Amino acid sequence: MKWLAFALLALCLNSSFAHEVRPGYLELREGSDGAIAVLWKTPMRGDMRLSLVPEFSGHSEALSPVISRQAGGAAIQSWRMRPLDPLRGQTLRIAGLERTMTDVLVHMAFADGTTWTQRLTPTQPAATVSQRESAIAVAGVYFKLGVEHILLGIDHLLFVLALLLITSGGWKLVKTVTAFTVAHSITLGLAALNLVRVPQAPVEAVIALSIVFVAAEILHAREGREGITLRAPWLVAFAFGLVHGFGFAGALREIGLPQGQIPVALAFFNAGVEVGQLLFIATVIAAIAGIRRYGRGQWSPPRWGGLVMPYAIGSVAMFWVIQRVVAF
């Protein structure tokens, strides 16, 4: 059983690690007078923040002092400046980014209505501000962010995996995944547009609790007790999907939405989440089919083999419940 203990530890570490690599966000808005309003958000851990500094290749003058505050586990700084050289064509570099494991999303809005959006990473901490950008570029950035968010969101993936185990594929799985998708798309949109606000800490705890619930339902099904998840998994997926949508929205708030391109960014972030989710489901189904095909007649699992996965999922999720409740 050493492999199971290692898997549980790896999942716990991955979950904690995911919260350590939250992205930074840099927004610059040009006024009609040529002045630039800057908003710079960097992740914090306790009272410490990542040592990241945005630097342009051109010269500029400060028009106001830097105002600092803390909100949502991030350090937020704002100030005004006037570039002495045109921003277009300059190179923007996030000094110190190459020594981290996080990303920085940059959004510039110019006085003529055009925008420039770019994602900077430790391997590519600098980029040249282009002369012109379309909504397609914004869509591409947020689509990729959506795919990466779901594939790195271990808690969301464990919930989907638990649903896969209890539905056993087929039309029931299609309805269940559809219900989950519709539900979290609704709350993601409402929360991202600030139409509904829910505290993030309880949301994260309930997300972990949703995994525990479905894992317990799998165990009950193995014992011949038919719970609501076995009878109507799409109802459970829809109910908890609403909560998971608030979790996605919390991640999107940390990234930031570009003003003037909010509908495009939101739509393609959600599309990226769905594509990443489908990729995960397809991978799991293919793995199960491969095991059944090539393992048939060569290896017979023990009777308790069907309990290992739900116990592993439930144990990791219960650890997260306790961890997140204690962090309130």
Automatic annotation (TrEMBL):
Residues passing through the membrane, by range: 149-166, 232-252, 264-291, 303-322
Keyword list, A-Z: Membrane, Signal, Transmembrane, Transmembrane helix
A Pfam family of this chain: HupE_UreJ_2
Keyword Nucleotide-binding attributed: no
Signal peptide as annotated in the record: 1-18
InterPro entries with a match to the protein in the record: Put_HupE_UreJ
Name listed for the protein in its UniProt record: HupE/UreJ protein
Organism of derivation: Sulfurisoma sediminicola
Lineage of the organism: Bacteria, Pseudomonadati, Pseudomonadota, Betaproteobacteria, Nitrosomonadales
